[in-house]
Write a structure and sequence with these properties.
Order of helices and strands of chain A: EEEHEEHHHEHEHEEHH
Distance between the termini of chain B: 53 Å
Oligomer: heterodimer
Number of domains of chain A: 2
CATH class of the largest domain in chain A: Alpha Beta
Strand content of chain B: 5-15%
Largest sheet of chain B: 6 strands, mixed
Strand order of the largest sheet of chain B: 6-7-8-3-9-10
Strand order of the largest sheet of chain A: 5-6-7-3-8-9
CATH class of the largest domain in chain B: Alpha Beta
Largest interface: A-B, 62 and 52 residues
Helix content of chain B: 40-55%
Radius of gyration of chain B: 34 Å
Radius of gyration of chain A: 19 Å
Strand content of chain A: 15-25%
Number of helices of chain B: 22
CATH topology of the largest domain in chain B: Rossmann fold
Largest sheet of chain A: 6 strands, mixed
Structural class of chain B: alpha/beta
CATH superfamily of the largest domain in chain A: P-loop containing nucleotide triphosphate hydrolases
Number of domains of chain B: 2
Shape of chain B: elongated
CATH architecture of the largest domain in chain A: 3-Layer(aba) Sandwich
């Protein structure tokens, strides 16, 4: 765990916000993540792709202190790395109004009087009506809840956002809006994102670089265009081939 | 609170209210009467002045019973307070402490639960001293382990939730999490349990007083009254009736109320029941044939023929007038977002709509109405594949035996024949070494293998129709592709008709020839899957545009659909998609478009 809270740039590469070296996660006898190393630059979106059991969610949880880890992680301190969960129906306390949930992420320095304004600002940042603060999660749709979860994470002023399968519990019509939001937040706030997903089409759309995880190891890593168009690893190739596509008999349109 | 309108809940509520009122007013109204000595009328039975007789001091037993309510309830409240004050903190402790101390506390709770309750109660009572005080402490302490364990279990569930994980990532401490998240979320079930505990404490204390171990004279509670009158039960039975009935009714009241509250809060509402306008009168006045009458435009060769299928739950109608047909060897897809009614349509086709749903319209399998088919016929002519293969397989039985059972139960095959058939079918779904797979248990299979086994199970008969509802949603993409290819291949080779329900347009388009698009309970468009990019319905178009694929333009924002699909209770009068549709006309909001040539739209896309 040494260096987990080290200042950025202490041992990182040029411009790297987060540098992970030799990350391992073990749950009892199960070795979920094996010697994983990667870096994320300032304002960069790195996609972490893999199937179930590949260890991608374990990486996300280990980087936020929710799973036991060994290895070197140099980057922003604990509050500087925030996590958004897969299931927006489970990640919001059903008994808290949205405003209170979002306020949970605010730094202690924000006084009681400034909180409502700050909550409103965060809700607007994720394109929600500030009035939403007075509602309960059950009154919101899945997409709106996921925006609330993002707003709560942003309240901690993170420099890196870890998005763990944030759209897989959502409908297609809502998914697009959340993906757009992730890209807009990067553009507006210079936020770096570790985007964890099993969906290659989604990852390709959102990310700058991709790391492919299989059985706890990174088998391939590179810029999105190169990995998608010219995969070097056989496993990456088989993943790409399996992506379902709309069938087109005639290419008239 | 409408869920509380059950007879037992109302009875409990009534009994508790009466008890509480008596506890307040009892001593005021009857206290003097209950204490009044009357040496001339001791140990009497029923008489007009003393309906329940008198005790050895000539005091009226009815008045004493009513006046004793306060003492009885008060002691039970004290005992329950002790239980709560010790049990809840003890149970909540593990979620506040560090891992090692938490394990120790958990172990302590477990060993207390294993300790005999009576011994614990007696030990505590001895320490607290004789009389009412000892009884209250004993009864209170006896219930501590149970409440502590319940609290711990509830707290553990909340502590494992994502929102607590989120709070931890945001830097919240253990005690902040306990106060902010854990306690508010477990308060409700705890309060219910404590209410029920009140009843048990009341009974326990009465028992102790009856044995002479509780309240001592000159004080009296119901148990003490029983203790004093019990020796006379064979001479004047009515003298026992007052305190005995009081204990029974009050104890039952608290227990009933607590348990009804617990049941009411545990029950998840089946479907959202929102106040909505009665279904659009405008739509009704159109010339729509009521289901089941009029000439049916039946395609005789269709395996599955669905006409005006409507499924409702109470006042809510999640599937509305759905009509389609599937030919032999054809695989038809149904696409829609969650809440569109696609899964319920699949269930209705399989005759599996859960209670209390009602199904109207016609479902013909091989030309015969579904309702006319026997269970055995359904079991062999229709195969259903669901999202979770583990739910379809019995974890305690070997895969081969489960498959064979279909043949022995539905086809009357011998055990040997059935077994041979099972191995053959497992081979047909491309499981390597089917002989060995048949001897394994479901948990030894991977997710993809399980789903193959379920498909093989469906193939044990000679199904004419295979309905697959999100069969690969729980599977990885590489496995998904192979399972769907298998499904399509089975359709083609056996000539069975197939219905594939999915939320994923690309999945459906890849494997199905024809696609039905559902929105808010209706089919809005039916089209060849190769035409999806040129769909005419604005909703289908928007869905296609919103689904990213490996060719999506990354330089532009993804297309999105504003708003949300209406819940089935709030579907508007006109086209259900109109409020979200960029092409909506005035007419769309008031007049619902009927499907014509596979399209239900007043203003379809043209290019």
């Amino acid at each position: 765990m040494k260096g987990a809270e080290g200042a950025e740039g202490a041992s990182g590469a040029e411009g790297a916000l987060l540098e992970v070296r030799g990350l391992n996660v073990r749950y009892g006898g199960f070795h979920a993540v094996r010697d994983v190393s990667f870096t994320i630059g300032e304002g960069e979106i790195l996609g972490l792709v893999g199937e179930s059991g590949s260890g991608k969610s374990s990486v996300a949880r280990a980087l936020t202190g929710l799973a036991p880890r060994t290895g070197t992680v140099a980057g922003p301190g604990p509050r500087g790395v925030q996590l958004v969960f897969q299931d927006p129906y489970a990640s919001l306390d059903p008994r808290m109004r949205v405003g209170r949930s979002v306020a949970e992420g605010l730094p202690r320095g924000v006084g009681r009087r400034e909180r409502p304004a700050e909550v409103a600002r965060l809700l607007e940042l994720v394109r929600l009506d500030p009035e939403t603060a007075r509602r309960y999660p059950r009154e919101l749709s899945g997409g709106q809840r996921q925006r609330v979860a993002v707003a709560r994470a942003l309240g901690a002023r993170p420099r890196l956002l870890i998005a763990d399968e944030v759209t897989s519990a959502l409908d297609v019509s809502v998914q697009g809006a959340i993906l757009n939001l992730v890209r807009e937040l990067r553009a507006e706030l210079g936020l770096a994102v570790l985007f964890v997903s099993h969906d290659l089409a989604v990852v390709r759309y959102v990310c700058d670089r991709i790391a492919v995880l299989r059985e706890g190891r990174i088998v391939e890593e590179g810029p999105v265009g190169r990995v998608i168009e010219n995969p070097a690893d056989d496993y990456t190739k088989s993943l790409l081939e399996a992506v379902p596509r709309l069938r087109l008999f005639e290419h008239l349109c | 609170m409408s869920r509380m309108r059950t007879p037992s809940a109302l009875a409990g509520l009534l009994l508790v209210l009466v008890t509480l009122v008596l506890a307040v007013i009892g001593p005021w109204l009857w206290g003097a009467e209950a204490e009044r000595f009357d040496p001339l009328h001791t140990l009497q039975g029923h008489s007009p002045e003393h309906p329940l007789g008198t005790d050895d001091g000539g005091r009226d037993l009815l008045a004493r019973t009513l006046a004793a309510t306060r003492q009885s309830v008060w002691l039970a409240v004290l005992a329950t307070l002790i239980t709560t004050a010790a049990g809840v903190p003890l149970g909540a402790l593990p979620s506040v402490l560090g891992p090692r101390a938490a394990r120790f506390t958990s172990g302590l709770i477990d060993s207390l639960v294993a300790f005999p309750v009576l011994l614990l109660a007696m030990f505590a009572a001895l320490l607290a001293g004789a009389g009412a005080r000892g009884a209250v402490v004993g009864i209170g302490v006896a219930a501590v382990p149970g409440l502590a364990r319940l609290t711990r279990t509830l707290a553990d569930t909340v502590a494992a939730s994502d929102y607590v994980a989120a709070a931890r990532v945001l830097g919240a401490g253990r005690s902040a999490i306990l106060v902010r998240h854990v306690l508010p979320n477990i308060a409700e079930p705890l309060i219910l349990t404590i209410t029920a505990n009140l009843g048990y404490a009341l009974l326990g204390l009465a028992t102790l007083s009856l044995l002479g171990l509780g309240v001592q004279p000159p004080d009296y509670d119901w148990g003490r009254l029983l203790h004093d009158t019990l020796p006379r039960v064979y001479v004047d039975p009515e003298v026992v009736a007052g305190p005995a009935l009081a204990v029974a009714l009050a104890g039952t009241g608290f227990a009933l109320l607590g348990e009804s509250l617990a049941r009411a809060s545990a029950r998840v509402p089946v479907a959202p029941v929102a106040p909505s306008a009665p279904s659009a009168p405008r739509g009704e006045s159109r010339t729509v044939l009521p289901p089941g009458c009029g000439p049916l435009p039946e395609a005789p060769e269709a395996v599955l023929e669905v006409r005006d299928l409507t499924v409702s739950f109470g006042g809510v109608t999640p599937v509305r007038e759905v009509s389609f047909s599937v030919a032999p060897g054809e695989l038809v897809g149904i696409v829609g977002e969650s809440g569109s009614g696609k899964s319920l349509t699949a269930l209705a086709v399989g005759g599996l709509v859960p209670h209390p749903g009602t199904v109207a319209g016609r479902v013909l399998l091989g030309g015969r109405p579904l309702a006319e088919l026997t269970r055995r016929e359904l079991g062999t002519r229709l195969a259903m594949v669901f999202q979770d293969p583990m739910a379809a397989l019995n974890p305690a039985l070997r895969v081969g035996s489960q498959l064979a059972e279909v043949a022995t139960a539905h086809l009357g095959a011998s055990r040997g024949q059935a077994r041979k058939r099972a191995v053959e079918r497992l081979g047909r779904v491309r499981l390597p070494d089917p002989e060995a797979q048949a001897r394994r248990y479901p948990h030894e299979f991977s997710g993809g293998m399980r789903q193959r086994a379920v498909i093989a199970m469906g193939l044990m008969g000679e199904p004419e129709l295979i309905v697959a509802d999100e069969p690969t949603t729980a599977l990885d993409v590489t496995v998904q592709k192979r399972v769907l290819e298998l499904l399509a291949e089975v359709n083609e080779t056996t000539g069975a008709a197939g219905l594939l329900i999915s939320h994923d347009l690309a999945v459906v388009s890849q494997h199905c020839g024809r696609v039905l698009v559902m929105y808010a309970g209706r089919i809005v468009e039916e089209l060849p899957s190769s035409e999806l990019r040129r769909a005419r319905h604005p909703y289908t178009r928007a869905l296609v545009a919103a689904s990213p694929d490996l060719e999506t333009d990354r330089s532009r924002p993804l297309a999105t659909i504003p708003g949300r699909q209406p819940a089935s209770a709030e579907v508007p009068a006109g086209c259900a998609f109109a409020p979200r549709c960029a092409r909506a006309l005035e007419r769309c909001r008031t007049d619902r478009p009927e499907p014509v040539d596979g399209l239900a739209c007043w203003n379809p896309e043209t290019a």
